[in-house]
């Protein structure tokens, strides 16, 4: 289970990075597609792995609210900034905490 979430979070990081690159290169159509994929993937991650967010839930909510405001105002620079400087680091930290939890969890079949 933890391996799966780590892989999915890593995939989400790559989708976000691709979105950022596309937008910075002026590929609005490509970025829009990546942005939609980012939101869809983020929604799936939250739906299936909500408990792993732990104390980060408020942080994610804050990022999503900020992102919504930029989308509502059609502020592409604001969207990219939130993706690059807030959401991507948030996902990275979430993945790191899941990796740490996986490393410290007792292995199946081990007995004391």
Features:
112 residues; mainly alpha; 4 helices
Structure description:
With 112 residues, the protein is mainly α. The protein has one domain. It contains four helices and no strands. The longest helix is centred in the last third of the chain and has 29 residues. It is elongated and about 50 Å long. 19% of the residues are buried.
Point out poorly predicted stretches: none
| Number of E-state strands | 0
Q: What's the main sheet like?
A: none
What is the ordering of alpha helices and beta strands? Answer: HHHH
Number of helices: 4
- Mean pLDDT across every amino acid position: 85
Shape: elongated
Number of domains: 1
The end-to-end distance, rounded to whole angstroms, is 23 Å
- Secondary-structure class: mainly alpha
**Share in β-strands:** under 5%
Give the radius of gyration: 16 Å
Fraction of residues in H or I helices: over 70%
Q: How is this fold's topology laid out?
A:
Elements: H1 2-24, H2 28-49, H3 57-72, H4 76-104
Entry summary:
The protein is mainly α and 112 residues long. The protein is built from four helices and no strands.
């Amino acid at each position: 289970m933890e391996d799966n979430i780590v892989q999915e979070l890593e995939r989400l990081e790559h989708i976000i990075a691709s979105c950022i690159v596309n937008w910075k290169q002026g590929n609005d159509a490509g970025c829009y597609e990546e942005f939609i994929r980012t939101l869809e993937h983020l929604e799936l991650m939250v739906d299936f792995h909500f408990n792993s967010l732990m104390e980060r839930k408020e942080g994610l909510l804050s990022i999503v609210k900020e992102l919504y405001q930029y989308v509502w105002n059609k502020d592409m620079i604001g969207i990219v900034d939130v993706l690059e400087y807030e959401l991507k680091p948030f996902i990275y930290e979430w993945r790191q905490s899941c990796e740490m939890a996986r490393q410290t969890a007792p292995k199946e079949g081990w007995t004391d």
